[in-house]
Amino acid sequence: MGMTALLNSLEALEVVAEAGSVAEAIDCVATCRPDVVVMDLQLPDGSGVTATRNILTVDPTIGVLVVTMFADDDAVFAAMRAGARGYLVKGAGQEEIERAVRAVAAGEAILGPTVAQRAMAMFTVRGTASAFPSLTQREQEVLDLLARGLDNHAIGNRLGINEKTIRNHVSNVFTKLQVTDRSQAIVKAREAGLGREPE
């Protein structure tokens, strides 16, 4: 209701339909042919990723903007692979939402600041992944943030996962790198080129 009210209050934007399920969303798109679909990823009868894929099969010119609580890498990239042009995390401000809707309507791709930062970090890690082939992608991300001097709490906030899971990842990293503490892990990571903020 809040999103509908916000969008209707913006100049030259009109909400033409609302849907509460994958099936309703596909029906609404077929009937209304909107310029933009604002999509959640959790729907009662399935995933917003599936809905996005099906909607774009009906009409590939529609811009899908995902607005969801989930900022983890799997969710972001699954939505993008399905064809979404934008991705915002719930809690985004009015100006950010308006900018994203208008950008997606104009055919642009847009990521909210939190998601963009995570995507950049992921590409940075991928560029140096060969230095530690035994680490999983998530462990590479944790090591990269560790090398930037972040503690477990801050790493959890950055990656959108809980601190206990981060502790497990850090422990796995220590084992695989054959180090006994954070300082040794940081030295190895920095020697490999990790720990640099994306330019």
Let me know the number of strands: 6
How much of the sequence lies in strands comes to 5-15%
By CATH, the topology of the largest domain is Rossmann fold
SSE succession: HHEEEHEHEHEHHHHH
The number of distinct helices, counting runs of at least 4 residues, comes to 10
Q: Rounded to an integer, what's the Rg over CA atoms?
A: 20 Å
Shape call: elongated
- The order of strands across the largest sheet is 1-4-5-6
What would CATH call the homologous superfamily of the largest domain?
Response regulator
Indicate the CATH class of the largest domain: Alpha Beta
- Sheet with the most strands, sense and barrel status: 4 strands, parallel
Q: What structural class do you assign from the helix and strand content? A: alpha/beta
Highlighted features:
single chain, 199 residues, alpha/beta, Rossmann fold, Arc Repressor Mutant, subunit A, 2 domains, 4-stranded parallel sheet, two-stranded antiparallel ribbon, 10 helices, elongated
Structural description of this entry:
This protein is α/β, with parallel strands linked by helices and 199 residues long. The protein folds into two domains: 2-111, Rossmann fold, CATH 3.40.50.2300; 117-191, Arc Repressor Mutant, subunit A, CATH 1.10.10.10. It contains ten helices and six strands; from the N terminus they run H-H-E-E-E-H-E-H-E-H-E-H-H-H-H-H. It has helices at 2-9, 22-32, 48-58, 73-82, 94-105, 113-127, 137-147, 152-159, 163-177, 182-191, and strands at residues 36-39, 42-43, 46-47, 63-68, 86-89, 110-111. The strands form two sheets. A four-stranded parallel β-sheet has the order 1-4-5-6, with helices on both faces. A two-stranded antiparallel sheet has the order 2-3. A hairpin with a 2-residue loop joins strand 2 (42-43) and strand 3. Helix 3 packs parallel to helix 4, helix 7 (137-147) packs across helix 10 and helix 8 packs across helix 9. The longest helix has 15 residues, at 113-127.
